[in-house]
Amino acid sequence: MAEIETLLQDAVAKGVARGIAVTAGDSKGVLLEAAAGERAPGQPMAPDTVVWIASMTKAITATAALMQVERGRLTLDGPIREVLPDLAEPNVLTGFAPEGGEPMLRPARRPITLRHLLTHTSGFSYDIWNPEIGAVMAARGIPGIIGCQRAALTTPLVADPGERWEYGIGIDWAGLAVETVTGKRLGEVLREEVLGPLGMADTGFRLGAAQRTRLSDMHARGEDGSLAAIPFEVPQDPEFEMGGGGLYGTVRDYLRFCRMWLNRGVLDGARILSEAMAAEAMRDSIAPLEVTPMRTALPGSSHDVELFPGMRKGWGLSFLINEKDVPGMRAAGSLAWAGLANTYYWIDPKRDRAGVIATQQLPFADPKVLATLDAFERAVYAG
Predict the structure, then answer these.
(1) How far apart are CA 172 and CA 248, in angstroms?
(2) Which of 52, 228, 332, 381 is most buried, most CB within 10 Å of its CB?
(3) Which helix (H) or strand (E) holds 106?
């Protein structure tokens, strides 16, 4: 614990982040919580500081979708068009017209399934890591996804469903599928079926008064390496609740979600998923495909992203899965992912460890934050 507190304090002193919060646990309970720095001027960062968890939302939305699969309302491998008519006839981007630059499209060769959406093999992409999608959005006036407008979901596919792993908006569509079959807004479903039963009281799409008193500022790293606060907030009255990245929460809350997975779908008597469904979600669903490097198209939003370079990575429903043991760190078969504002988690069923780390800064995959994550994880296992 002392080593981790020193690590965080040193990181803040060296300008890694303005504030950092971490927690780690196992299947039985919390092993540690720590924080350093400030969430706002004069306000200390803490394990209950509220942060935008961004794409760490995806695994929570996926969990709600898998609950509907268990109830027979959704299927993993049937065409999702039966639930989402907007995806009945998806088109694949093939290029741009020589004159005028109009996007050229063709019909997809196979239907999209829920499994495709959850594993990022549907063909949907993000403009942050795909310049062609950025060009389509510019040509057609499609808004960015963080604005939570339905028009942001009208981008074409960049590959046929099932052909390759491409990080994108698939889980936003999965969240809309959950809404369709439940007849409720996604936030209500999450609150009633996942967040509430798991005791994640500070997690939600909308910031309540209690959360605002503990909310962290967002920051951006300038060219000189310094961090400055920037205005940022996910829309609080959104056109659609962004299942791929709209939640706010705390590291303390998110560890409870991670520990549910260490316990194969249950935590403190609350059964969220059956053990069989949890096992299905935790296995690599994309082999022989693999997770490929994400090359930035918007450097202000993200660096290039390649976790564990040189190692094959698979994807579950919906987690990154490392194929090999990482010496001194997570075992093969661990689950992990992250959020755009440099928040990260891992879940290691084999070694019974999970950890969460949060800053609030852009661009994503900050090398200094990743080095701190690495040191934090090593300290957790050494302890």
Answers:
(1) 16
(2) 52
(3) strand 103-107
Which residues are within 8 A (CB) of 70 and not within 5 positions of it... i.e. 6 or more apart? 273, 274, 277
Chain segment 127-182, per-residue pLDDT in tens: 999 999 999 999 999 999 999 999 999 999 999 999 999 999 999 999 999 999 99
Which residues are the active-site residues?
55, 58, 167
Full residue range of the structural domain in which residue 158 is found? 2-382
Q: Which two tokens stand for residue 106?
A: 């063709």
- Under DSSP, is residue 263 helix (H, G, I), strand (E, B) or coil? coil
Count of domains forming the chain: 1
Confidence class for position 251, pLDDT limits 50, 70, 90: very high
Q: Which residues of 23-56 are buried (b: 16+ CB within 10 A; e: fewer)?
A: bbbbbeeebbbbbbbbbbeeeebbbebbbbbbbb
C-alpha–C-alpha distance, residues 118 and 265, integer Å: 17
The predicted-structure confidence for 260-315, as pLDDT tens digits, reads as follows: 999 999 999 999 999 999 999 999 999 999 999 999 999 999 999 999 999 999 99
| Tokens describing residue 40 | 């706002």
How many angstroms separate the Cα of 164 from the Cα of each of 202, 203, 213, 236, 288?
A: 36, 32, 43, 34, 10
CATH number at residue 177: 3.40.710.10
Tokens 């053990």 -> residue: 275
The pTM of this model reads 0.98
For residue 205, give the 3-state DSSP assignment: coil
